[in-house]
Every structure is written in structure tokens, then in C-alpha cells.
Design a protein that fits this description.
The protein is mainly alpha-helical. The chain contains five helices and no strands. It has a domain of about 80 residues.
Length: about 120
Amino acid sequence: MTDELIELTYSVKQALKDHPLVKKLDEIEDKMENDVEVQHLSFVYQVAQDRFNDFLKLYATQSSEVVTAQKALYEAKKQLDEHPLVREYYAAFRPVNDLYDEIQKKIFSPFGGSKSCGGY
């Protein structure tokens, strides 16, 4: 039984890997990861996140430093999200996520509706 389950698991994994929606998402992700502009925008966003988090530790939430860092974080995220490759990635991600949700429902629905572990 265990060997059969392992085989079935690998079959599902391969089927998902070969699914056209997943392949498209992987291709877009590769483009995004190799795009210099996306890399730069991602770096700027990460720096803005770090700065905002650091300022939250040092200053009051409503301080001008935190508010300024929050605005910079928002702008950095907005710039990243508006890049055409990132938008394309998000658009391709939604159907893949829906596919995964559907698989999860079909596999786990016989075990009850709760997503928590150990609930009796």
C-alpha cells in the first residue's frame, strides 16, 4: 500500500508539472527572475520592507519616520506589481492556484471540512 501511494503521489506531481497552466507559470517565472528591471524593483521593495520594519521597532507607529517609510514601501510594491512581467505572472498564477485548490478539495474532502490537524 505504501509503495502504491508513493507511486500515485509521484504521478500526480508529474501530471501537475506537465500541466499547461503550470508550465506557462514556470516560463513566466523564469523570465521574471532573469529580468534585470524586475530584479531591481524587487530589491528596492525588499529594502523598503526592511527599512519600514526597522523603523517600526524604533519609532511610534504614527511618527513621521514610519509614515514616510510606509509610503516608500507602498510605492516600491506598486512599482513592482505594475511591471508587465509581474502582472503576467499574477494573471498566470490565479488559474494554477485554482487548480491546486480543486485538487486539495477532491483529495481531502472525504476527511471532513476542517483544515486543522488533529481535530476529532
